[in-house]
Amino acid sequence: MLSKIIGNYYYMVAIILFVIGMYTMLTHANMIKKVIAMNIMDTSVFLLFVAIGYTHGGQAPIIKEGSEAIYVNPLPGALMLTGIVVAVSVTAYALSLAVKIYRYYGTCDYDEICEIRSQE
Amino acid sequence: MGFADHFPALIVVVLFIAAFVSPLLFRWVEKATAPFVIAALVAALIMTTALLVRVQQSGPVLYHMGGWAPPWGIEFKADLLRIFILLIVISVSLWIFIYAVRDLKHELKKEVTGWYYTLFALLVGSMTGMALTNDLFNLFVLMEICAIAACAIISIKEDRECLEASFKYLILSAMGTGCFLLGVAMLYMATGYLNYSLLQLELVETLTLYPRNIFAAAALFIVAFGTKAALFPLHVWLPDAHASAPSPSSAMLSGLVIKIYAFALFLIFYQVFPRELLDLIPLNEIILWLASLGTMFGSIYAMLQTDLKKMLAYSSIGQIGYIFMGIGFDHNLALIGGFYHIMVHAVTKAMLFMVAGVIIYSTGVRQIKDLAGIGRVLPLTMLAFTIGSASMIGIPGTGGLISKWYLSLSALEIGRPFFVLIILASSLLNAIYYMPIVISAFMHQEDFQFKVKPVPFFMQAALVVGMFFIVIFGIFSKPVVTLLEQAVISLF
Amino acid sequence: MDNTTVITVLILIVVLPIIITPIIFYSSRVSEKLRNGLAVVTTAITFLLTLSLYPTIARGGVVQHTLFEILPNLEISLRLDVLSFCLAVLSSFIWFLCTVYSIDYMAKEHATSRYYPVLIFTLGSCQGIFFAGDLFSLFVFFELMSLIAYILVIHEETEEALKAGYKYLVMTIIGGLALFFGIIIIFELGGTVSLGAGEIIQESSLLALLAFICFLIGFGMKAGMFPLHVWLPDAHPVAPSPASALLSGIMLKTGAYGLMRVIFDVFSPELLQSSGWDKILGALAVITILLGSAVALTQIDIKRRLAYSSISQLGYVLLGLSVLNNNAVIGAVFHIFSHAFMKSTLFLAAGSIIYMTGKRRIDEFQGIGRQMPVTMGCFSIAALAMIGIPPLNGFLSKWTLALGCLDAQMPFYVLVLLISSLLNALYYLPIMIPAFFELPGGSNPSGHNNHHDIKLKIKEASPRMLSAMIILALCTFFFGLTPNNIVYALSRLAAAFLLLGGTL
After folding, report:
1. Cβ-nearest to C173 among B413, B431, B482
2. From residue A98, how far is each of A107, B167, B243, B322 by CA, in Å?
3. How many CB atoms are located within 10 Å of the residue B91 CB?
4. Distances in Å between the alpha carbon of C258 and those of C10, C50, C77, C336?
């Protein structure tokens, strides 16, 4: 059992990062922290995907003439490039929203924003 | 391949082209932007109809992007159900857009209107893509486009509530996406495929080899799509988002965006996961119970609201519960009911939000208690509201009854009359908060308190179109139901 | 008349009033007389068209025609048989008279441009209920009628009227949902909801019992059955009097009609008797009869007293339906006719008193009989008929019902009928006797001056209002004199038709 966990440590790390990211995103009040946590969460899934693609003893997936080597699966990496782009655009948008909200309220903290709103 | 063969991809591409060109057009020839987007939507609609004819004649159409066959390429599939959803999405978007052209002038700043058209076209394009795609990762990308576009059409209004609501929606949506991607990772780990059809074939065997992966993936998908489609208890972002957005955006969001995620969940559950999964975990039970709670709680929260658009938003939560109940019953009649309700609710809720928009445009009133007596000054608008409420309650002659009919019939067919009681109880709760508004609008003693601006012709025409279709869906329902019966039969 | 003509006439009867409604609405801008004339003419045409269907059903003919299919296996259809003819002709007749009455009653009222279109529209939907050929169309027209009648209930727009209307609306929606549940169970169990398909439910099961209870809730709520009668005593009094007459006279009967269709065409009498479900209906009917009469004794407002009286009188019909033998069903159908005539007369008379004097409380009615003799005369004839004095039609219906109960060896029911008659006497006589035999303003020793003053102020109601009342009062007389009258014959035909399973 323990050897299975240690053998698959990259899956474990990815899941731990995912949970950290999700927990922070949902519970922390600071908006910037939420965005960072969202990035952590997405990055963890990217890491998981890329790790899935790894084959033991595989080389980089560039075909050389006439060699019979095993290659690492390039597909997850390619997919994750797309995923990273998506995550970046969402981050950019979320940060721009955070900036605008900061301009209105003067604080990045969600709890304080709720207090200001409830006082109105 | 002839031109017509490329239609599945062209539908999405045309809308994206419209999205990119419209800000430029707005800079040069401002007046041409809206007609241009309308032309794009009409073109998409024509292509969808052509596809429908083709699918009815010769069965599902598979389209490979770039000519690469799966599993190396992305595949688009057009079968009857997807075309049904496409027709709903495109025609309702066209209708809302015609309304929006007139309404946006007073809700948004002038400079951003061109960007609104971009976001609108992006949103419609991504939704059509989500309906057509047969590949999980393509679904992810389109889902994100949809999420950003949806949040952006809320925040484009740039006042305090909508910025916060948009941020909350974005964060929760991102959480959903993260879960979805992890689920895709689980499936990819176990099978190596991302294409729905290939996955369906593989997963039957994989279920016995790696059951926990599949369970985890299923659970993550329910969370992901539940958050985005506002399944109880993951609906918390919806009221703020839909209430603070400009009215055409609310109409789009409540009417179409949440439905497309429910449809995506349906596709994954019925066309990817094997039926044996349901023997191991009763996933449909979970969805069914969450949906039932959603219908009840949505209505209960709606009763407590004082703002008109918030009330309509909570009502959406209740109504999306019906659609999820249709998915959760696991019976062909329930699916017919659920899909019919997608169509009816898209039109009804869009029209109700348009009514709210007209009221805000014309009088600036948002609180329900200020609506007393408005029926006498805005009779057409309140007539539209009455017919929309009648459809929500399920009064015969409107489309709402047909979907409730099928849902109740399937509840009885699987031997669980308790759910008919839930459907009826939620209808009663719907009546309790819609009727007082209608009654006080028409029957109130004193006259309406606020100044009234006249309502533009296009907005009124949009409302009339909506009323017409709601009644048509209630009376001439046979063609659509036969189409759905045909479509659903292949799943069982 | 051949089938196609009959079907055209049926469609015309249902559709004509509905189409004329917007015309009436817009004609009120031209002139009031035009609007009133249009309304009366529409009701007259509907009545004549309905009458013209008599030859078809006199031989026991049944016409069932499908209009179109709304969903697979679910059709919208029309049906003409003895029972639907009976109720349709009754409703169009009384509607005609009440519309004539309304012309003068509503002359002083506000929002008449809303009242007349709604009145005519409700006529169309009522006829639609009676001529519906399947449960779904019945449900559609039922809901339509109930919701549009709401506008009649809240016509006065006072605080009280709005509250009563809200209660009415909530109960209508609950009843409608119960009906929906019942219909869907029937569709599930039987595969069809058409009324021409014979017995739809063949065997009793828990689901079938659930459907029966749902129908009892849905139709019983409209018919004022205990315990769903709570909307009635508030809704009928606040409506304008001709509308109250129609609400009490006809719209309650749509609930009874629905129950009859359910009992005879969906479930069969044998099924109900063998599984003992008719006892449920019987028990509720008995409670309704006694409760309605008992509470009516405590009411001071005349329209509330008449409303509670309606509750108990509908109980008679339900009682007849629960006993389910020949005499009982004849009695039930005949009582539908009789009560419609009697209660309409009573409400119209009460309405003319309220219109001419503004008095609604029973303790203010002393001496009215001397000043408004025709009105009180009609009131008295109808009240005596309610009590069950021969030779009026109330007696004939009670007699037939009692015979039916005795045939079924239920002497307890006869006792209930007698007690209810006694209670009827106890609450009608105190209205009639002071009206004729006391001086106005009470037996005031120094009342001479008052007597003269009041005599000068109160006049008899206008000829139009009187004529409607007189015709109805005469109906209670002529249709009760002997059993050899057309209405009784129709009831006999209807009962035979229903009990023999839809054929003669």
Report:
1. B431
2. 10, 8, 20, 35
3. 20
4. 19, 19, 16, 13
CB contact under 8 A, A83 and B178: no
Helix axes A9-27, A31-53, angle to 10 degrees: 160
Residue B247, beta-bridge partner list: none
CA–CA gap between residue B214 and residue B414 (Å, rounded): 26
Q: How many domains does chain C have?
A: 1
List CB contacts (< 8 A) between B180 and chain A: none
B166 touches chain A (CB under 8 A): yes
Phi, psi of C251 (to 5 degrees): -70, -25
Domains of chain A are 2-119 (1.10.287.3510)
Closest CA to C213 of C126, C275, C168: C275
| pLDDT above 50 for C447 | no
pLDDT, one tens digit per residue, over C311-370 is 989 999 999 888 888 888 888 999 998 899 999 999 998 888 888 888 788 888 877 888
In a domain, C380, yes or no: yes
| Among candidate residues B321, B473, B338, B485, the one with its CA nearest the CA of residue B403 | B338
* Kind plus residue range of the DSSP H or E element containing B75: strand B75-78
From the list C211, C219, C216, the residue with the least C-alpha distance to C186 is C211
Neighbour-count burial of B7, counting CB atoms closer than 10 A to its CB (0-12 exposed, 13-18 middle, 19+ buried):
buried
Closest chain B residue to C161, measured at CA = B443
Which tokens hold the place of B166? 């948009």
Average pLDDT of chain B is 90
- Give the tokens for residue B435: 């009727």
* Residues B218-269 pLDDT 10s: 999 999 999 999 998 999 999 999 999 999 999 999 999 999 999 999 999 9
Tokens of A62: 């560039």
Taking the model in full, what pTM does it have?
0.91
Question: C485: which DSSP letter?
Answer: S
What is the torsion angle, in degrees rounded to the nearest 10, for the CA atoms of residue C261, residue C264, residue C266 and residue C267?
A: 140
B393 at interface of C, judged by CB pairs closer than 8 A: yes
Q: What is the structure's pLDDT at B85? A: 94
Given a contact cutoff of 8 angstroms between Cβ atoms, the answer to whether C3 and C57 are in contact is no
Q: Tell me: the pLDDT tens digits for C469-484?
A: 888 888 888 887 877 7
The tokens of C392 are what? Answer: 């009026």
Tell me how far apart the alpha carbons of residues B180 and C231 are, in angstroms, rounded to a whole number.
52
Would C331 be classed as within a structural domain?
A: yes
B84 burial type by CB count under 10 A (0-12 exposed, 13-18 middle, 19+ buried): buried
Q: Say whether residue C144 is in contact with chain B using an 8 A CB cutoff.
A: yes
Q: How many CB atoms lie within 10 A of CB B24?
A: 12
Q: Is residue C136 part of a domain?
A: no
Partner residues linked to C77 by β-bridges:
C66
Element (H, E) at B77: strand B75-78
Kindly report whether the peptide bond that precedes residue B233 is cis, defined as omega within 30 degrees of 0: yes
In a domain, C59, yes or no: no
**d(Cα B479, Cα A13) in Å, to the nearest integer?**
54
Separation in Å, CA C346 to CA B119, C6, C352, C383, C469: 67, 35, 10, 7, 8
pLDDT above 50 (res C444): no
* Chain A residue numbers touching B166 (CB-CB < 8 A): 97
Residue range of the domain that includes C414: 282-504
**DSSP result, B220-288:** HHHHHHHHHHT-TTS-TTHHHHHHHS-HHHHHHIIIIIHHHHHHHHHHHHHHTS-THHHHHS-HHHHHH
Phi/psi at B125 (5° precision): -60, -45
How far is it, in rounded angstroms, from Cα C122 to Cα C141? 10
